Amino acid sequence: MANGVVGWMWWLTVMAYGGTAVLCAIRALQLRPVSARASGIWWLLAASMLLLGINKQGNLVGRLTTQGRLLAWAGNWYQARVGVQVVLVGLVSLLTVGLLAVLLWRLRPLTAVQKTAVAGVVYLLGFALLRAVSLHAMDVFLFRPVGGIYPNWVLELGGITLVAVAALNGGKRPLSTRTAKENL
């Protein structure tokens, strides 16, 4: 695949993160007069998408991976890194699933669409961290094109689309009107 296409998709992904952050902010502004809590959730989602976009644009996770690789070389354990990577994949996976479970439990008054947006952001965070661990087998899967399309693009843009579609449809019904104690 030509570098121009890869670079173009990189920027498309960065713009998708930014556009989705804008959609979340618009949803937050629309919900502000109706429900301050729902508006706050959308502001957090907007900030999360913006930070994930900055991460993508600045290749911050790639830099973290490079630093880990240099640390492994300096510590003379680069050849044995697979064990560390497997443990890190397990930890990142557990933390991602755990974070999603805790957030969905704590945010149970959210609508299904809002929960979908939260799940999309947590998925994207976990996906970015899993890419940082950089197991060779995972890289082979993510970065080997199938019919000219990289699975990495489909997985990342799919998560972004999940949040964007939720932002477009997420304001139809605000949070339920439970007491403050029930909403905790």
Question: How would you describe this protein?
Answer:
The chain has 184 residues and is an all-alpha fold. The chain has one domain. The protein is built from 8 helices and no strands. Helix 3 packs parallel to helix 5, helix 4 packs antiparallel against helix 5 and helix 5 packs antiparallel against helix 7. The termini are far apart. The C terminus is likely disordered.
Q: What is this structure, in a nutshell?
A:
With 184 residues, this protein is mainly α. It has eight helices and no strands.
For the biggest sheet, the summary is: none
Number of domains: 1
| Secondary structure: number of strands | 0
Shape: globular
Q: Key terms for this structure?
A:
184 residues; mainly alpha; globular; disordered C terminus
Question: Would you spell out the secondary-structure blueprint of this structure?
Answer:
Blueprint: H1 3-31, H2 36-58, H3 60-74, H4 81-106, H5 112-133, H6 136-142, H7 151-169, H8 180-183
